[in-house]
Amino acid sequence: MSDMKEYQKVSEEQHKKVQVNPYGPNPSDYLSNVRSFQLIESTLREGEQFANAFFTTEKKIEIAKALDDFGVDYIELTSPVASEQSRADCEAICKLGLKAKILTHIRCHMDDARVAVETGVDGVDVVIGTSQFLRQFSHGKDMSYITKSAIEVIEFVKSKGIEIRFSSEDSFRSDIVDLLNIYKTVDKIGVNRVGIADTVGCANPRQVYELVKTLKSVVSCDIECHFHNDTGCAIANSYTALEAGAKLIDVSVLGLGERNGITPLGGLMARMIAADREYVLSKYKLHKLRDLENLVADAVQVNIPFNNPITGFCAFTHKAGIHAKAILANPSTYEILSPADFGLTRYIHFANRLTGWNAIKSRVEQLNLNLTDDQVKEVTNKIKKLGDIRPLNIDDVDSIIKDYHADVSTPRMGATEGPAIVDEDQASLDNVKRPRLN
Amino acid sequence: MSDMKEYQKVSEEQHKKVQVNPYGPNPSDYLSNVRSFQLIESTLREGEQFANAFFTTEKKIEIAKALDDFGVDYIELTSPVASEQSRADCEAICKLGLKAKILTHIRCHMDDARVAVETGVDGVDVVIGTSQFLRQFSHGKDMSYITKSAIEVIEFVKSKGIEIRFSSEDSFRSDIVDLLNIYKTVDKIGVNRVGIADTVGCANPRQVYELVKTLKSVVSCDIECHFHNDTGCAIANSYTALEAGAKLIDVSVLGLGERNGITPLGGLMARMIAADREYVLSKYKLHKLRDLENLVADAVQVNIPFNNPITGFCAFTHKAGIHAKAILANPSTYEILSPADFGLTRYIHFANRLTGWNAIKSRVEQLNLNLTDDQVKEVTNKIKKLGDIRPLNIDDVDSIIKDYHADVSTPRMGATEGPAIVDEDQASLDNVKRPRLN
């Protein structure tokens, strides 16, 4: 048995060496771009298709600057042929001199392309529906027509010296042979990227992995992916696409887009930082995420969802006694994401009937009181009893603790540091607004 | 070339036969439970660990009944040792005579087990931390101690004739050899289910697939999975786990749970109905989803997130002209999920600058007016021009159309049916509340 233990110990150490982060890139994915991905930020294109969105020119410029400051690689804008103002706004943003490259998104048509290349963009994203559904009910064209149009538009845009992406629409319901044929063709004539789009938001991760991996074997250019979130898989599909060799992911702030939207910028940051913290921190100003989300949420008049990754009001709140105990000992036990990376703070919720004596003990210390463990356990039981009757607030808990403490001890000198437990009111202010809390 | 076309046509027909639904189960997953999954609904356990949650006995009973009516297979309750009221509530819910089996969730300890089996539950879910982190910072036990406790608790619960599940906690950071050893042991002594838990919410789909598939080769009992949503992958991980052979998924209404929660019931329904509509509709009353979510959201004082799958206010709203056109011709072009399955309606957003003439044409018909296509295109341009200046509402669009129409035509007889475009005000009422819309 002691041999076995010795073996296990050695084995564990070897294991740690091989894979320090179990959520890091899979070492067998040699084409993976999990550590070298780029973002195409589409709040000002896909996001404008969100039901509530109406961005003025000033608001578009404010958002574009904030995205640029955050560090996104590309900013995608609504087609200049959508309306006269769309065209003027596109030209205005191109003149801002941002670090991010500016793209606009057009139909695969020379009429659109001619307008797009004159706006001053760094690149054009071309899209056309290749599924049976879109060929029948949208544009009514067959694959040979689509291919011919694609070649004409691509060669025209390239002749202007700017980047060009060719994407299919509704890729997962398109015939795989049609898809690979057209991607191979456009790759040969020199597109910068080909795009896969889950336009209806129903693809699943393994399906994404297979299609991207197959496409990767056919083209030499970069692969970009666009995932809608109708079935809640947009973030996971994005991650899996990167594992399979895709390089660029389309995102928008809070995922704003048609229907319930696309891969959200913040959620993808959570996913990617769990895989490669160093790369993400080197490229993106994560501490500006909350302000960026608030800016866009205000512009389209929505609230940050209560359960939003990272910035949802409870994303770093720990409640059950068993969780609170371990978090106090070592935050990594229940937290891979560090709230400090995003300029946020952790919150241990101890004023409730699920609380444990470790959380109460920590509160006792914060209050600069002195109780033995047995005393803390006794006062915890009193708190749980009141918590059974009604919702508790911090004052309830503090007064129970103080009453109990009154006779048994004297205050210690010097307040202890209390980063693990913050005052509830302070958490509300410091963190993010709690929805509908009175 | 015509041979090629002929070949493609035949090939397309064959393709349709082989796989009617491209989002259906992968035919090569012979262990997949995508078509035979079960739900363990944990709003009254994991959901009670949500920061805002305080459920009275009456509210717990109301929620339990609603979940049972919806059709969930299991309802999981907070441990009866958490507080005296938790125990009383557990007993009360067991006495309701629901169709769903009632479970309670306890630590792997005889003290907890003895209380749990006396409450009247149909089964006990046992959990213990097996990761280095939890072994070091939570309970401080080694694997041989964990195994010994597990065997004692399992044999005790089995002796009472009720179901028993054994789950590790933080499974993806646990040593794979430790995990497989203990699962194999508990499977041999006859647990009903073993559980995998992504307690920190950082697992990714391919990682999940590998672990579940490996575990499936080691145990003969059912596999249950529990995914936190910190990195936005809980729904995708659940789906992938089912593909790999897991049978049961832990969910809660709106995903309520520790931090930003777990796999949401509604989001998983969206995912599963895209894969197998028939199975989902045969088991679950989807048209009650909205009421169920509203009940729980009110109880914990949060708003339904604007981008929630299915019940988010914009989940079935289509805006861009190119989308609206195709949706009007055939909803399946941009929609796999049918709003009618959930008792909801589709909404084509036509009062904005991204609108297209097909959407306006449909509105013209709804208004019982008669314009030629060229006239519709002309009036569409007028609408887009105003849409460039400020946000539009339905009245704006209607008055532009009516002004334009005044001299050129006369009203047709008989109103056309208008299921595709509904009045915006009506959509607000019929669908779900729009956050912060004035």
UniProtKB/TrEMBL annotation, chains A, B:
Look up keyword Transferase and say if it applies: yes
Q: In which pathway does it act?
A: Amino-acid biosynthesis; L-lysine biosynthesis via AAA pathway; L-alpha-aminoadipate from 2-oxoglutarate: step 1/5
Q: Which residues form the Pyruvate carboxyltransferase domain?
A: 37-296
- Coiled-coil intervals: none
Task: Give the region (Disordered) as residue ranges.
Answer: 1-23, 411-438
What the entry lists under Pfam families is as follows: HCS_D2, HMGL-like
Q: Which SUPFAM superfamilies match?
A: Aldolase
Q: Which GO terms describe its cellular component?
A: mitochondrion
* Gene Ontology MF annotations: homocitrate synthase activity; metal ion binding
InterPro entries named in the record: 2-IPM_HCS-like, AIPM/Hcit_synth_CS, Aldolase_TIM, DRE_TIM_HCS_fun_bact, Homocitrate_synth, LeuA/HCS_post-cat, PYR_CT
EC numbers, comma separated: 2.3.3.14
Q: Which UniProt keywords apply?
A: Amino-acid biosynthesis, Lysine biosynthesis, Magnesium, Manganese, Metal-binding, Transferase
- Does the record carry Ribosomal protein as a key word? no
Name the reaction it catalyses.
Answer: acetyl-CoA + 2-oxoglutarate + H2O = (2R)-homocitrate + CoA + H(+)
Q: Where is the composition biased (Basic and acidic residues)?
A: 1-16
NCBIfam families annotated for this entry?
A: LysS_fung_arch
Q: What protein family does this chain belong to?
A: Belongs to the alpha-IPM synthase/homocitrate synthase family. Homocitrate synthase LYS20/LYS21 subfamily.
Q: Give a short account of what the protein does.
A: Catalyzes the aldol-type condensation of 2-oxoglutarate with acetyl-CoA to yield homocitrate. Carries out the first step of the alpha-aminoadipate (AAA) lysine biosynthesis pathway.
Name of this protein = homocitrate synthase
- Specify the species: Pichia membranifaciens NRRL Y-2026
